[in-house]
């Protein structure tokens, strides 16, 4: 609980405000471009002789585009913010653990490739689970938390841990503390499921995992 409150406080830190507003602005720009593309694509839909059918198609396609943009908000935000997450981790470490040795920078390219592969895993596994999400009330929530709790826990923990440990050692530490890392991942998954909050969920997740990692490897 203390780690969650610290992570929430980090989001409000002025040191991270630049990253936050830049990522939100770029996300809004990309979503706007996708929305504009979708709008022009809808103009190319075939027209039917029955007026009511045209109206129905317009309503359904418009609603589908809106829902699609809402669902894309988190993946797009994750991809954009993924470029800056290494910097976010460094700022949180400096802010909350000033006496600890600083982690090593992962670099822009590794951060970007990690963000892309993470995005692919999130989208791919959630698409596989989509039938359950849509058709099985109750079980859909459980499956969402199982899938995304694991993904968020693994990816965000390793992002932070790689700044201090080698890949093999970082993964061993994650597996040794799998349940705690998973619970932190569930908290991040809940944050990403809330509209608007999901735009800053990657920053929150990184800050949270810095605190989880420091608790598990205090000498790092």
Instruction: Please report the total strand number as a whole number.
Output: 0
Backbone shape: elongated
Query: What is the first-to-last residue Cα distance?
Result: 22 Å
- Approximate helicity band: over 70%
Calculate the mean pLDDT score and round it.
80
Rg, Å, rounded: 20 Å
User: Which stretches of 5+ consecutive residues score pLDDT under 50?
Assistant: none
Q: What order do the helices and strands follow?
A: HHHHHHHHH
Number of helices: 9
Structural commentary:
The chain is an all-alpha fold and 220 residues long. The chain has one domain (2-216). It has helices at residues 2-11, 14-42, 51-82, 85-96, 108-135, 139-161, 167-176, 178-192, 201-216. Helix 8 packs antiparallel against helix 9. 29% of the residues are buried.
Key attributes of the depicted protein:
80% helix, single chain, mainly alpha
How would you summarize this macromolecular structure in one to three sentences?
The protein contains 9 helices and no strands. It has 220 residues and is mostly helical.
């Amino acid at each position: 609980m203390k780690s969650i409150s610290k992570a929430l406080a980090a989001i409000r830190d002025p040191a991270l405000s630049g990253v936050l507003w830049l990522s939100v602005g770029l996300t809004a720009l990309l979503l706007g471009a996708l929305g504009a593309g979708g709008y022009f694509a809808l103009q190319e839909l075939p027209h039917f002789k029955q007026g009511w059918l045209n109206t129905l198609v317009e309503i359904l396609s418009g609603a589908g585009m809106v829902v699609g943009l809402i669902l894309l908000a988190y993946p797009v935000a994750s991809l954009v913010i993924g470029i800056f997450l290494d910097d976010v981790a460094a700022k949180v470490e400096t802010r909350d653990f000033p006496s600890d040795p600083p982690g090593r920078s992962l670099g822009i390219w590794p951060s970007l490739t990690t963000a892309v592969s993470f995005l692919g895993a999130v989208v791919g596994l959630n698409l596989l689970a989509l039938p359950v999400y849509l058709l099985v009330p109750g079980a859909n929530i459980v499956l969402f938390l199982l899938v995304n709790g694991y993904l968020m826990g693994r990816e965000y923990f390793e992002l932070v841990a790689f700044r201090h440990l080698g890949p093999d050692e970082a993964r061993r530490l994650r597996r040794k503390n799998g349940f705690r890392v998973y619970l932190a991942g569930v908290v991040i998954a809940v944050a990403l499921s809330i509209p608007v909050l999901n735009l800053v969920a990657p920053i929150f997740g990184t800050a949270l995992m810095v605190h989880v990692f420091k608790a598990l490897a205090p000498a790092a």
